[in-house]
Amino acid sequence: MAEPRRQPAAGRRRRRTRAGTDLSREVYIDAAVNLIENRGAAVMSARTLAAAVGADASALYRYFGSVDDVLRAVADRMIGIALDNWSRSEHWIDSLADLARALYSVYVNDFPQTGFAVATRTTGLDNEIRAVELTIGLLRDGGFDDETAAYRFRSLADFLLGQAMLEAAFLSLSPDIRSSDNTAWQELGDRIPHAEAPHAAAAAPHLRVLMLRSSFESSLQLMLSGLAASPRNAA
Length: 235
Known about the structure:
The protein is mostly helical. It has helices at residues 25-39, 46-53, 67-85, 92-110, 112-118, 126-141, 146-171, 175-186, 188-191, 198-210, 216-229; strands at 15-16, 22-23. The chain has one domain (15-229): Tetracycline Repressor, domain 2.
């Protein structure tokens, strides 16, 4: 698993734990990611975070207003890692595609449990604002006016995060359940009554392969093709 990158935090204050570790916002964020990846988001609490960092539960509130604020910071960390991995291409639509891939990779490939836990969250923090600024800027480079760029941003964000959450959720299932679901698709053709469902029967040989792999790239291309062909202004 990739090591989470630490993002700068404003107003950083450090205190030492009983074990001699310097406490900081970043230490809590690291601990939260490790907890979620290994035990799931449901275990997140002031007590479990305290045990993870080796401090009293009350120490959390020197750096965060609540456990939910930790989750928001984790979500912002994820966005920051993706932005650090992304670089601008010559064409605006290629840059958008690469930005989507960078975000998807962090949410699904690097930290699937965490991606599933935070994909629906709005952070309101620095990295999310960076991502909005970059995306709107690329859409403006593509000729969209402010209002249309805002609409297209919403559609792109919902597609990306929805796809990431769906795939991360599947990866969070036990291996036995994932195997059972995959087997159901592979055996689809044998279970379909051809006379009653001729279209599904005809597609079954293709679905038994397609449903076992990610649709992210093909869905992204479909989304970007529609974006490139769409009107550039609200009128």
